[in-house]
Amino acid sequence: MKIIGRDREKDLLKRCVESKRPEFVAVYGRRRVGKTYLIKEYFNKQFSFYATGLTDEKKEGQLKAFNQSLVEYGSNEENVPKDWFEAFMRLKKLLLRENIYREPSNGKIVVFLDELPWMDTQKSDFKSALDYFWNSWGSTKDDLVLIICGSATSWIIKNILLNRKGFHNRVTRRIQLMPFSLRECEQLLEYNEVIMPRDQLMECYMIFGGIPFYLNLLDSRLSLVQNVDELIFKPYGELHSEYDNLFYSLFKKPEKHLAIIRTLSASKTGKTRKELTQIEEIGGGSMLTKNLMELEQCGFIRRYMDDTRVDKNSYYQLIDPFTLFSLKFVVGRKTDSWADFFKTHGYFSWRGNAFEILCFNHVPQIKYKLGISGVSTSEYGFRLFDDEAGAQIDLCLDRKDGIINICEDKFTNDPYEVDADEYAKIQHRAELFRKKTKTRKGIHLSLITANGLKNGKYSGIFQHVVTGNDLFEV
Asked: CATH for 7-176?
C-alpha cells in the first residue's frame, strides 16, 4: 500500500532507523488519523516484534494476547506470563536471539507496541515493567528502535511524554500525527479512484476533515451528498455514532472534554480560559489545563494569542471539521437527510462558517501564496463587537514585519463579486478593526475564495487573492 503524504513523519522514521543510538518513538494523535497504518506500511509490516493492546480486556487477557505475539515471533514459552515483568523479560530474550528479524538496510531491531494504553489495565504493573525494560536494557541497545502508539492520547501524554519518573526524557522522538491537508486528501481520493472537483473536495473536507479513515469510506459510485447520507445520517452508517465513539476512545472520562467542545462550537472566534471556567460542567484548575492540552494535542482545538487585545489572554478555538459538523447536524438528530438539507439557506450558512475553519487549517498554504512563508505570524479571528452575532474579521494574519493581513473568507459557487454594498462593509470592518485594536501596523486586505474573484469596479479593494486551488499547494 502507498503512504499518502506524511513526508515529515517518514523522514523522522528514516532517521530513527539510521540512528546510531537506541530510539524510543512515541506516536500519538486522534482516532482514525492513520497512526498504525503509517508505521506498518513504512516498515512493510516487517517487525522484530509486534503486539497490540486489546480494548476492554483485563490484565489476564492483555498478557495472553501479548504472549501469543511472543510465540508467533519465535518464543518457546507458551504459558501465559504471570505479570508484565515476566512478559517483558520474555520479549528481551526473544530480541537477543541470533535469528531475530532485523531491518535489511542496517540490521536494526524494530519493536512496535500498538494501542499501548489498552495494555495498562487497572491494578496492573504494566508501566513499571515497560519502564524497567527500557531503562535497564533497551536504552543500552544501539540497534533497538522501540515504537509505541495509541489513540488514547491523554494516556500517552500523561504517562510517557510528561512523566516525571521512569520515563522522564526517555522518549527520543515523538510523532504527533495530524489530519491530512487538502492536498493530501486529494491524493488519497485519487488513489481510491474517487473523482471529485476541487470545490466539492473542499466541501468534503469541511464535513469529514482530513481524516484518512473517513475518506477511505467514500464510495466512488456515489455523489458526495449521497456518501454523507450513507455514512453519517443513515442509522447503519459507519460514521453514524462516530462522534461519541471518538471521544470515549480517546479519553477515559470525556464528559468535560465534550463540554469544552460544545462550548467552543458556539463561538467562531473561540473562548478564553476564564470564559470556559464560567461553565459549571467544564470547571477549572489543573483539570481544565489537562483537558485543554489533550484536546489541542489531538487537533480538535487550537490555542492562539490575539496580540491586538489588551488582556493578552490565550484563546481556544474549535477547528476540527467533523466535530463541528456532527454537533451542528448529527447530535440530537437536527437533520435526518443531507440530501434534503443540501442547498437550503441553512446549508449555505453552514458552508460559509465551515470554510473559515478550513482556512484556519491551511494557514501555511495561505502564507505561501501571499509570499510570507518565512515571516512569523499569529493567526486569529477578531470580534468587532462583544456579542457573537456582531461583525467579525474571519482571519487575521498578524505579521512580525509590521503588516496585518485582514482576510475575507468566501465560499461561492462562482467567482466572488464585490458590489458597492460589500465594498463599503469591507472598508468599514477594516476601519473598525484599526480603531478597536489601535494598531500601528499596515493593513492589507486579502480575499480567500473558493472559486476566484470576478474583476469589477470594486475588486481592487483586495491587495491579495488566494483561490481554492492555492489551498491545495505545498
From this structure: 3.40.50.300
